[in-house]
Write the structure tokens for this entry.
Amino acid sequence: MSTTLNNKQVFVTGGGRGIGAGVVRMLAKEGYDVTFSYRSAETKADTLLSTLIEQYPDQNFAALRADFAMREDVEKIAAHLSKSNQLYGFVHNAGMTYDALAPMVDQSRGEDLMQVNFWSMTQLIKAAVRPMMREKSGRIIAIGSITARMGAQGNATYAATKGATASFMKSLSVEVARKGVTANVVSPGYVDTEMLATYADKREAVEKRIPIGRYAKSNEIGSLVAFLVGPQAACITGAEIPIDGGLSASIGFKN
Ligand code: NAP
């Protein structure tokens, strides 16, 4: 049973499954009211919603369908955010990958990726930050990736969307700091979700390179996000925090 936080609302994009669902679960556990978006994972979103409603009957939960490749869907969610009276937190988690070698990148596919991973985030933040600044309190978090700062063979455009996210969030953090709003990036390494399903045959080799020896779990990413949303994190802003089992700290081989 959680303690409720006077209906403090947090919106999470792509919360129906994977890391987003971990973020939703951990925020709910901390007592927040959570609304999340989903695109195709309707059944998983419904199941998550029913579980939360049963587990935390004193809190409010909702799920909205939106495809951030479609600008009208971004506008629909932006309108929802700007009308929220008690919006306290916004987490942009929804994201896609695009596997292509850097010299082979197709611009149209790259632009589609940028729309979902980056541009939709900028427009949703534009809407979310106003109610937060009015209340002089708020938390904005983007799920980045350690690929923003490392070479990601075969994933250059994806890494670039996460690099753009990190740069945008740093500038945002400075602009909104005096209004009581923090803005941070949580950058996972490898997390056990469907996004990595196509690389399943490489998992053992990858885990050998990770200092803690395993992928992160969605709930572990969710716990870090929940901490950053919480009152103890008021002084943390403009940060890009890796959560990768030490992967980005390692030179990659053992003596
Ligand atoms: P995932 O299991 O593939 O889930 C992707 C999430 O994004 C789903 O909730 C999906 O919604 C949503 N989404 C995808 N395209 C969308 C679109 N066009 N419009 C709206 N929502 C869309 O991936 P994940 O691992 O949980 O990834 C979540 C975030 O973490 C992403 O930003 C990803 O880049 C980042 N990340 C993941 C890893 C990793 O190792 N898994 C590492 C670093 C960073 P539906 O399922 O409803 O379609």
The pocket of NAP is lined by residues 14, 16-20, 38-41, 66-69, 93-96, 116, 143, 145, 188, 190-191, 193-196 (CB under 6 Å). The longest helix spans residues 107-135. The two ends are 48 Å apart (CA to CA). The first strand starts at residue 9 and ends at 12.
